[in-house]
Amino acid sequence: MAEQRWNARDPRDAGGDPRRAEGGPPDAASDDIARAWDELVATARRTVADGLVVGTSGNVSVRVGDTVLVTPTGVPYDRLTPDDVTGVDLAGRQTLGTLRPTSELPMHLAIHTTTDARAVVHTHAVHATAVSTLVGELPLIHYMSGALGGPVRVAPYATYGTPELADNMLRALTGRTACLLQNHGTIAYGRSLSEAFDRTAQLEWMCRVWLTASSVPGLTPHLLTPDQLAEAGERLRGYGQPT
Length: 243
Fold this sequence. Notes:
It is built from 7 helices and 8 strands. The protein is of the alpha+beta class and 243 residues long. Strands 4-3-2-1-5-8-7-6 form an 8-stranded mixed sheet, sandwiched between helices. It is globular and about 55 Å long. The relative contact order is 0.14. Keywords: Lyase, Metal-binding. This is Class II aldolase/adducin family protein. Residues 38-211 form the Class II aldolase/adducin N-terminal domain. Residues 1-32 are annotated as: Disordered.
């Protein structure tokens, strides 16, 4: 994973369509892009409203074909408009928009190119970030760990926006759909933005439960066994309405 692979460049330099660089999708064929961008912005704003990020921390991406739409770096989500659509190809070359993509592009592209993810949500959620500084794996405090593929691992710390962090994250995500990032936050992916967001919120909730239970003086939280978690995970696969 060479670092320059993930650096956003002007789409004219990358062979992109100059019209796209000057204001978003150029024709009706980009309706899917426009709809996905609207949903991405709504999801990003929801991370703020639900207290999962502060300011411009955290980021969101969604894949449409071979284009990955991402939140731009350093721009408050409530200021984003349809004309701010920002997208890259799977090699990290900017193909849509003039705003620079999120600094965490390496993590997003690592997931989009190695899993079946359609959407990724990264946050600096308070309780999850706190847990990431205490343990190497979230203790089995609740069976919903099974919905994320099993015990939630903590990816070792690396500087944000680097290929090293993306590599650490991928190892922690092996067989999982979410992980913690040490001294940093959370990342989760799914088949849709809503699924990725729900997994993020569930992880933050489990971290809050564990921290709350662990803070009671003189008592130690009862944890699930791996067998109990596996049984719950199997049942969760059939949870909800058929699709």
